[in-house]
Write a structure and sequence with these properties.
The complex is a heterodimer of chains A (about 190) and B (about 550). By secondary structure, chain A is mainly alpha-helical. Chain A folds into 2 domains: about 140 residues, Globin-like (Orthogonal Bundle), CATH 1.10.490; about 35 residues, no CATH class. In chain A, about 75% of the residues lie in helices and about 0% in strands. Chain A contains 9 helices and no strands. Chain A is elongated. Chain A starts with a helix and ends in a 7-residue tail after the last helix. Chain B folds into 2 domains: about 170 residues, Fumarate Reductase Iron-sulfur Protein, Chain B, domain 2; about 325 residues, no CATH class. Chain B contains 24 helices and 7 strands. In chain B, the strands form 2 sheets. Chain B has a 4-stranded parallel sheet. In chain B, strands 5-6-7 form a 3-stranded parallel sheet. In chain B, strand 3, helix 16 and strand 4 form a beta-alpha-beta unit. Chain B is globular and about 85 Å long. At the A-B interface, helix 2, helix 5, helix 7 and helix 8 of A face helix 1, helix 5, helix 12, helix 13 and helix 20 of B.
């Protein structure tokens, strides 16, 4: 069993697998939109498609065990999840897009990996998909938190001078403290 | 009992070829994807038709009994009144040039947010009832019968359009989908269907003069607070005239600049600038709102609210109106004001800068100019003493607010000001700025927080371009010339490009403005320390002497 040859298989199949994976993700969107997401290559005209494809490319390398920069993996995943967290998707659809990599890997990789006697390496790769899903869950929750904090912070900004005026009238208790404190904490805590 | 599905089955992607076409796909109303309905008492107070209790997420919207007749007559009346509407409804060939240009489509990936399809929601009904071919052939030519689900669909998608008009830029026929959205919203209001975030500001504006319903004494107090802040920063006391007769200029800005962060810093910037150049102006509590949420209700409501500007200019005897940094205010002023409420009162003249003598001939009809035009002219003539290095810690990019950019072509003036007051100015990518600018995602009365995720979807293309320059050029600031932008872009930036601060243009102008008699500046308008505070020359020379 040669590790080198498994790596060669991973590399050779990358294009097919990444394409199958992103296509599966795009197929979660309405029929009329899927083609646009797949074909519009301008990153500003199609940020969803772009972020998905960039993430798929980086994450495939991470999953297949190539040496990767942790920050870069996290960043690619964060950009993908940041979009999916607010796209009116159910939480399983938002995060579960990562699991759509597994069927693609099984179709394009599993047989050859077994032929090379590299079952363990293959299973490791699938387990890394699970790791990404766990990371994605953290990111998803942080994004949702950011939305909620954003709502409160915006309210506070909106009435900042009214609050000041009310305080000058000696009626600050009209603005309950806990909400104001929560709103004051608008420090971004995302990558 | 069944086997637990695998992830790809659990997530239930759509079938490869959906059985239902768009006409039979209904929107799902759920908390967070619709705006709250207008309160009944507010609708009644504004004499709106058919005020009633209803909820978008309930099956029965309690429409008036003759709702079909109301829509039919309403559409008929508007087709006769607006020739443009008929042309827009007839001339679309569904080429799709607009389809992927809408920020809501790009962010939601919902096909009905393609401007062509959003317009088709009305067009299909028009075709059925108002065209012979539609009457005869029905669905074959894309015509459909009006039913209550169509009304719901109109509501759902008319409030996922910010009337930014990016789509119309790409339409070979120049079809203005924003105008179609405006008409659909008008028709919905005929049935008593409106949103509170728009109607309450309209009502407040109508009654007390500004969106939040701030009464004159409170407005005066708050302006004084801001003057206190200016004094702390510059050592100069400003007492802006309020409701005074006999001044040359009436200054009207969106009220958000007075009461909301970060707009207040822009407002302080205006006051500092006017003080420095000795402008003969007054503010007004009656016309204390530049924004016009009436334009998100109906043309008539827009006209009603807009009328205050001329009425106040006449009452106070102002010669011309200077307008603050606002977005849709300028759509109304530039495109509709002259026909809504014109001609301007007799006491008014074509605006002329008292400092440079420049005559703003393009405003001969409205007698009203944008402060970016005014300030750019001052800077061009070298009338301001500026220290752009005070903004050296800022690497800014510029967001073209949709209405000033697309509805009045205000592209160069803000940029020339920005270059004069800030040493680090970076443009976002070309297909996201100027005429092609992406909306903040919350315009046209959608800046309410109950639809925050929807707004973040709409703001995604802008946020995405911002993040690009943040990563590539270390941009840490976003300047804009719209009060609504200043209210919502901090939220958009915090989500899509955390770490970028949002401000108006005149905040940066006033940071850089050297005022006669000011103390050495150690802080910016937000009262944050300047990284390079002014050198106190008197103290420095005193030390040397000793």
């Amino acid at each position: 069993m040669g590790v080198v040859s498994v790596e060669a298989i991973y590399a050779a199949r990358k294009e097919d697998i990444v394409q199958a994976w992103t296509s599966a993700i795009f197929a979660l969107y309405p029929f009329e939109t899927t083609g646009f997401l797949r074909t519009q290559k301008d990153r500003f005209a199609n940020p969803v498609g772009h972020a998905t494809m960039v993430a798929a490319d980086t994450l495939y390398d991470a999953v297949t065990g190539r040496p990767v920069d942790d920050d870069q993996v996290r960043l690619a995943l964060a950009e993908l999840i940041r979009i999916r967290a607010i796209q009116d998707l159910t939480p399983d659809q938002a995060v579960g897009a990562l699991f759509l990599l597994k069927p693609a890997m099984r179709k394009h990789l599993l047989t050859d990996a077994l032929a090379e006697g590299a079952l363990e390496e293959y299973l490791d790769a699938e387990s890394r998909v699970d790791s990404l899903a766990l990371m994605a869950f953290d990111l998803y929750m942080a994004d949702k938190q950011a939305v909620f904090k954003g709502r409160v912070a915006e309210l506070r900004r909106r009435y900042s001078q009214i609050e000041r005026w009310v305080a000058a009238q000696g009626a600050s208790d009209l603005f309950p403290d806990p909400i104001m404190q929560a709103a004051g904490d608008s420090t971004p805590d995302k990558p | 009992m069944a086997k637990l599905p695998k992830p790809e089955e659990l997530m239930a992607g759509r079938p490869p070829f959906p059985a239902k076409g768009w006409m039979n796909t209904k929107p799902e109303f759920k908390a967070g994807n619709f705006c709250y309905p207008a309160k009944v008492e507010i609708m009644e107070g504004m004499h709106m038709p058919h005020p009633h209790e209803w909820r978008p997420d309930e099956e029965d919207w309690h429409l008036p009994e003759n709702w079909e007749e109301i829509i039919y007559n309403g559409l008929k009346e508007r087709l006769a009144k607006h020739r443009s509407l008929k042309v827009f409804l007839d001339s679309c060939v569904r080429c799709g040039a607009c389809a992927d240009k809408c920020h809501f489509f790009i962010g939601t990936n919902d096909p009905k947010n393609m401007p062509v399809l959003r317009a088709e929601l009305l067009r299909s009904v028009y075709r059925k009832d108002f065209t012979l071919v539609g009457k005869l052939l029905g669905k074959v030519v894309g015509a459909r019968k009006l039913d209550k689900n169509v009304i719901k669909e109109w509501f759902f998608y008319a409030y996922q359009c910010t009337e930014c008009r990016r789509c119309s830029l790409f339409c070979p026929y120049g079809i203005d989908t924003a105008e179609i959205t405006a008409i659909v919203r008008e028709l919905l209001y005929e049935l008593g269907l409106g949103i509170n975030w728009v109607m309450e500001p309209v009502s407040n504006c109508n009654r007390t003069g500004n969106h939040i319903g701030l009464q004159p004494h409170a407005l005066k107090d708050i302006i004084e607070f801001l003057c206190d802040d200016i004094e702390t920063i510059t050592g100069i006391r400003i007492n802006p005239p309020l409701n005074e007769k006999g001044h040359e200029v009436l200054f009207i800005t969106p009220s958000g600049d007075v009461f909301a962060d970060p707009g207040i810093y822009t407002f302080m910037g205006y006051l500092m600038l006017f003080h420095e150049i000795g402008l003969d102006y007054t503010l007004s509590t009656y016309a204390s709102e530049g924004g016009n949420f009436g334009s998100f209700v109906s043309f008539d409501m827009a006209k009603k609210l807009n009328a205050k500007m001329y009425a106040e200019a006449k009452r106070l005897g102002a010669k011309w109106i200077l307008g603050g940094e606002c977005g849709h205010m300028w759509r109304v002023v530039n495109q509709y004001m002259a026909t809504y409420n014109g001609p301007a009162p007799d006491n008014m003249i074509t605006p002329v800068s008292p400092i440079t003598g420049t005559v703003f001939k393009h405003a001969a009809a409205t007698k009203m100019i944008h402060i970016a035009e005014f300030t750019a002219d001052l800077i061009k003539h070298g009338k301001l003493n500026l220290k752009p290095e005070r903004n050296n810690h800022i690497i800014t990019t510029y967001h073209d607010s949709c209405n000033p950019a697309r509805a009045m072509g205000l592209l160069e003036e803000p940029r020339s000001i920005l270059r004069a007051v800030c040493n680090n100015f970076v443009e976002m990518p070309p297909n996201t700025i100027r005429e092609q600018t992406f909306c903040c995602g919350s315009g046209s009365g959608l800046n309410t927080e109950e639809i925050m995720e929807l707004r973040l979807r709409g703001g995604m293309p802008r946020g995405n371009a911002l993040r690009y320059v943040q990563q590539k050029n270390d941009v840490n600031w976003l300047t804009c010339i719209c009060a609504l932008d200043r209210a919502v872009l901090p939220t958009v930036a915090n989500y899509w490009a955390p770490g970028v601060t949002v401000s108006g243009l005149h905040e940066l102008v006033a940071n850089a403005l050297v005022m006669k008699g000011e103390i050495p500046r150690t802080m910016d308008l937000r009262q944050e320390d300047l990284p390079e505070p002014d050198v106190d020359e008197s103290a420095a020379s005193g030390e040397e002497d000793a």
